Amino acid sequence: MPVNEVKEEPTVRPNHVYVIPPDRSMIIANGTLKLLPRQTIDGRHHPIDLFLESLALDQQHKAIAVILSGTGSDGTLGLDEIKATGGITFAQDGSAAYDGMPRSAMLAGSVDFVLPPDAIARELAEIARHTYVAAEALPENVDDAGFNQIIRMLHQTMEVDFSSYKGTTLRRRIARRLALHKLNGTREYAEFLRGRPAEVEQLFQNILINYTSFFREPDAYETVKTSILPRITAEHNLH
After folding, report:
1. Which residue in 42, 57, 143, 144 has a CA-CA distance of 20 to 30 Å to 221?
2. How far apart are CA 56 and CA 109, in angstroms?
């Protein structure tokens, strides 16, 4: 595959590798790569987070992100955005020479698959063929019997009734789990769930992904810690 440093604003093409130039930031919009001046927040440069956030917005459920060997925590917040829009995420396992970035993502619960690079490649090839990723739009028609079985199992296992929850959101979250397990329908997934309470819990957590960016923004937590909590404790003498 040709490897190109981005210089203008190319439309992304299959089987091409694009490399961000030094001292720049990059996003994707409508399938086109766009270069921006280097952006820093509190002196930190997180180009991977910025790019992945734009990828999530641009590709929604079709976005796939892979974090390989690297130091620091860049990429963790970006993976959260990918998962929030229904995309799929990978991180390199203990084979990484520098495990800071993949470990940060794993500890944040942002990763679907933790694998060595060769296994990541095989998994990507399989997932890319699944309807969930390959289709331009997600199918809205599902097997109601299988869908209703899944909702009942969620109610029984997690004690939460999703029967009045937004149907489109539920179907998309379920379709995402189908892709991860390479299953082809809701009846097959309902059968897969039986006797697997851990998978029921994973589906439950996927359904309740929080879209509020506050909870994925470390600066907001820092403000709470340094400004808001000290004021509350001082006013109420909580020591």
Report:
1. 57
2. 17
